[in-house]
């Protein structure tokens, strides 16, 4: 049975943030991400739209509604240039108005106006890799549930706690939590003796950490440039990866 025009219109509408918010749903695509979605409960899957070949390869039928579609139909609802076998319509998770107390027990990222969906997704992958369990998106940060962001996470959005928040709200709630930011005049990240818990502020490419956020940063770190090199800056996600690696590897209790 062909997928209805109403369904195509509904799924296509989820490309826009306002409709994702109105319907409390988003889309995720590809066998790997959808496979991981079906193995967890934090993000309930509402419906699957898949090629017959993908469905036939499943070890058992999925526990959620599944509609088989043709490659042409998948292309009409996909947000990818090259549709990838299966698309899931997923419920947005419920979020608490209260900041998690676990912020005090480990390292987290705060994203200060990171506008690129691809960078946002990459930053969640970095947080996942280095064991930063929370990512807090400040004002001006891209929407995690946009298709480009979700695809760029490569599934890390399922393992990292993500929420929106204000940096001042965090520092007021957790005054003892060290807040770090990147600055050329900061401490060398490779010589840093990192505390067991903290918050690392990542600014947008170009402007870096905003003036408002800078008032909340307590310690600054920098990534030393090779002698004689003149590159002005690093991509936000690349810089975050180096900084997170420096923080994790400076901890005395690191298990290799």
Give an account of the 3D structure:
The protein folds into two domains: 87 residues, Ribosomal protein L30/S12 (60s Ribosomal Protein L30, Chain: A, 2-Layer Sandwich); 149 residues, SPOUT methyltransferase, trefoil knot domain (Alpha/beta knot). The protein is elongated and about 65 Å long. The C terminus is likely disordered. With 256 residues, it is α/β, with parallel strands linked by helices. The chain is built from ten helices and ten strands.
Architecture of the largest domain, CATH level 2? Answer: 3-Layer(aba) Sandwich
The percentage helix is: 25-40%
How many helices? The count is 10
Number of domains: 2
Please give the number of β-strands.
10
Largest sheet: 6 strands, parallel
Low-confidence stretches: 252-256
The share of residues in extended strands comes to: 15-25%
Give a brief description.
It is built from 10 helices and 10 strands. The chain has 256 residues and is of the alpha/beta class.
Keywords:
256 residues; alpha/beta; 60s Ribosomal Protein L30, Chain: A; Alpha/beta knot; 6-stranded parallel beta sheet; 4-stranded mixed beta sheet; 10 helices; disordered C terminus
Secondary structure elements and pairings:
Blueprint: H1 5-13, H2 17-23, E1 25-29, H3 31-37, E2 45-50, H4 52-56, E3 66-68, H5 71-77, E4 86-91, E5 107-112, H6 117-130, E6 134-137, H7 147-153, E7 161-164, H8 167-173, E8 179-188, E9 198-203, H9 211-214, E10 219-222, H10 236-249
Parallel strand pairs: 2-3, 5-6, 5-9, 6-7, 8-9, 8-10
Antiparallel strand pairs: 1-4, 2-4
